[in-house]
Amino acid sequence: TAVDCDKDHQVTVKDDKTVTGVLRVKGCHATRFARKPTRCGNVGNTLSSLVNGRLKKVGVNVAHNVQIIKTAGDKKQTEFHYTIPCQKEHQKALLDSLKDSCKDKELTDTCTHANQPEDDDSSSESSEETTKATPVKVTQKDAPAPTAAHATPAAPVTPKPISKTGKTLKPSKPTAVDCDKDHQVTVKDDKTVTGVLRVKGCHATRFARKPTRCGNVGNTLSSLVNGRLKKLGVNVAHNVQIVKTAGDKKQTEFHYTIPCQKEHQKALLDSLKDSCKDKELTDTCTHANQPEDDDSSSESSEETTKAAPAKVTQKAAPATTKATGKSGKTLKPSKPTAVDCDKDHQVTVKDDKTVTGVLRVKGCHATRFARKPTRCGSVGDKLSSLVNGRLKKVGVNVAHNVQIVKTAGDKKQTEFHYTIPWRWFEYYVMKSF
């Protein structure tokens, strides 16, 4: 895919609290994004990450999330219409960051990956490619339902990964799962379901070193499961939490847990088994498994020796795994972090719709979190998961997502400033956390 940022990216200040934009990407098939909103989500997440990284460099530490609200276009291009909540004092910096982020190769790489054809794209594409009619404009709000007939889908092309040094890395082959043999799901107790998913072709070291790769796999499985649960009338969100990985350079085991009430467990098990067979899951694993610069040192040693590959396990204590720099140099791992919850965690009711908090974590280097927003995302996701698990135990089935809006601190500690949309009666439940 490609974007002419000067011509095809319009950004506008709508009012004192909102910035809107339209991004036109050539080579993106609009029907695919209209039919599958998770593709739009991937594009929005990447643009958010790029924008927030640039904003932090100019001293704006408030997270700005790109929300894609509509798509339009044809089989040759897609327009992504988005909105971003933004206070007036940050709007100029946001506009500059959006324009600069548009030129980043990571954005077009994400669009290219999200645009790859899948089984449910085949019928619409075959008709478009065999007729010369003017392409119909498609919007995400009125996406056409897929027809029953399916043409043979084109094999998705995995783009070759490019290292930050400009060197082309050899792409990994497509991953695979034998769902009957390699996916075990178990009811642990009346409130928890656990599972192990073994994916062939996934290099375990890559997932152990970079937890965000596990997060991508967990998010896709959550999305697939919740989509199936809704069709069965279960409207409670069930989030897959990958708690450990194990394996070698030929396969990875993802050990996960899902908070789930007893009355929904049978439906959840059925949805998990069915979701395992969805091509979107293996596509996500394939994409997450692609090599990067920081994988090179470990892989070169593994691929040039004939010794049995060592089993790699991603456990809760990161200090046991030595970090590797992009130059191949082994970095000294950080010591375990700590929180004095009585002194260093303040939670406040801001208004009838919002709870805010500040979590001070000792042993966290603030610059690292300021530079890389995905690290804050991992902390927020984990806190959200823990809170929602406890809320469900007391009968509150509404998901509450922790949004980290700012970080502060020094090399010895980090303050995570967060906000949570809420309803007034739930505060008394949340106080116990």
From TrEMBL:
Residues 110-178, 284-340 are annotated as: Disordered. Residues 143-161, 306-331 have a biased composition (Low complexity). Residues 117-128, 291-302 have a biased composition (Acidic residues). This is Uncharacterized protein. It comes from Adineta steineri. The lineage of its organism: Eukaryota, Metazoa, Spiralia, Gnathifera, Rotifera.
